[in-house]
Amino acid sequence: MHETLAYLPQILPAYIAYLVAVISPGPAIMAIIGTSMTHGRKAGMTISLGIFGGSLTWAIAAAAGLATLLQTYAMALEVLKIFGGIYLLYLAYKAFRAVRAGGELPIATMEQKTPAFKSLVLRGYGIHVTNPKAIFAWLAIIALGMPQGAPASVAVLIIAVCCTTGLLVFMGYAILFSTSHALKVYRNARRWIEGAMAGFYCFAGIKLLTSNI
């Protein structure tokens, strides 16, 4: 344990970098916000679990030497980028359909249409695990906090602290945007919010598909 703590000067900058990345709005955070405002706190927290699972997947992969794997199988990353972009465009399409539906949804109707637990978890996981940006973020965090020669316990500590923080941030967004005030705002401006979500996902999907990674 003492050997691990000796690397705290390297771990701290890595944690700060992760904190900035996880708080910043992106497809994952927008999915949590949109789900929480549309279907309530439970749904928002459920999709957060899926997003957390995706983050944990890339964290472990990065610590296990994903950089070497990506250098060997560069095509795999390109395929992942395409799938991620298409998935974001699919989410944009769904949000656009909600805009066209129009009208104000009563709370009871919203609750009846809440996606199943498994569906929400898989949606959250899919958003995060198909986002190549998340891969490179974790590669940078592991590289920053784990210098050459560092024991495996350092990677375990980085992943444990960062992922715990990430889960708290995701759940915090879900709780914040599922309050009665947030739900009131959603019901009063539903079409504008869904329109913004559609535009965001469309922009993110096109940007991902056309980016050079």
Please tell me about this protein's structure:
84% of the residues lie in helices and 0% in strands. The protein is mainly alpha-helical and 213 residues long. The protein has one domain (26-210). Helix 4 (41-63) packs across helix 9 (132-145) and helix 5 packs across helix 6 (74-101). It is globular, with a radius of gyration of 19 Å. Residues 104-112 have low confidence and may be disordered.
Total E-strand runs:
0
For the record, give the distance between the C-alpha atoms at the N and C termini, rounded to a whole number. 37 Å
Number of domain units:
1
Helical run tally? 12
Q: What's the helical proportion of residues?
A: over 70%
Poorly predicted residue ranges: 104-112
> Which structural class matches the secondary elements?
mainly alpha
Envelope shape: globular
Radius of gyration of CA atoms, rounded to a whole number: 19 Å
What is the average of the pLDDT values?
80
Taken as a percent bin, the fraction of beta residues is under 5%
Sheet having the most strands: none
Give the SSE string: HHHHHHHHHHHH
